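Could you help me review a protein record that somebody else here produced? This is what I was given.
***
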Amino acid sequence: MLDLKFIRENQDLLKKSLSDRGLTLDLDNLFKSDEKRRKVLSELEALRQEKNLANDEITALLKAKVDAKPKIASMKEISLKIGKLEVDLKEIEVELDKVTLNIPNIPHDSIPRGDATCNKIVRTWGEPPKLNFKPKTHIELAQKLDIIDLGRATKITGTNFILYKGLGAKLERALINFMLDLHTKKHGYTEIFPPFLVNRASMTGTGQLPKLEEDMYRLKDDDLFLIPTAEVPVTNIFRDETLDEDKLPIYYVAYSACFRREAGSYGKDTKGLTRVHQFDKVEMVKFVRPETSYDELEKLVGNAEAVLQALGLPYRVVMLATKDLSFSASKCYDLEAYAVGVDKWLEVSSCSNFENFQARRANIKFRRKETKKTEFLHTLNGSGVAMARTVIAILENYQQEDGSILIPEVLRPYLDGRERIP
């Protein structure tokens, strides 16, 4: 969430930001409402001072045993005016929130301007496998090995859900445990196991609401949401709190199931595990001082890359352009793993710096050690990594001519030393 004062004082920057993102918003009404709000606040402040003075005068009159009824009547009128203005202020602030909560973050100067075609490949790692036979897709492999049953998942729930079986389920669990161990033992993260349901305030705090409500699964009777990522509950751990500076940085990592309706996925590739409504993910979240956040972003990307390197999966790091940037992010890198069966680069991680955008929405501050002043900290998050497409890459890149799958060496300890599937 952008500060109203910042918006007021940086109108040209905001308009350029919206243009860079390919968005249009009615800012004129925002500025009119903000001006009206400031006027009402000024009137309220004056009336409250007048009421305080009148209260002091009444106390003095009563002490002097002088008739205070005219002054009391005057104070009641002031109180009525204050009550009306407070109602007016609340209505104005609701209208302001409707606009400000839908204004996206300002893109960082370093990222490309334009749509997805302007995304910049920063680096690549590894080489796509060269197989001496025609590669099968993960769907064909999984069906032959009987480790994923998409048909029965559809029967149980609906399309684009996953039912892992046998060694497929064990592979999924192995990936989760491997990633959590890597991030906690080597990268300095503290493990969290969060709720998979969150309230509206939590979803608003990280920027999913109100913008993306149609893409979320909601329990209407309780107004709770199934989480789209562990970023939501983990970031909200410190909502409405002020942390001491010497506690920062804080690194958390969490496994969760993730739920997304994919309401805007019509026409996109939704075959197999490519785009599903429920998937597993290990998520990294950072709470840091503002001056270190971009260094922390590069470290975060490195932590995600370490997963793919350990798994031996070729990947590329892509810096997203402004029109491909998520609502809350100021800068984002996607990690895309190559899968030989579908012959595609698949996004398996997004690593973002939100600067103070989420912290302002969720009211997460820190107190400077020297000055004791409080300010909003910076939040970051990154997939470390998302499972469904990572499973695609493992099945397809490690497939053998006989249809079996070699298991990446780092996963074998989690699979009782097994070297291949089946």
Notes: The chain has a mean pLDDT of 95. The chain has two domains: 4-100, 116-421. The two ends are 50 Å apart (CA to CA).
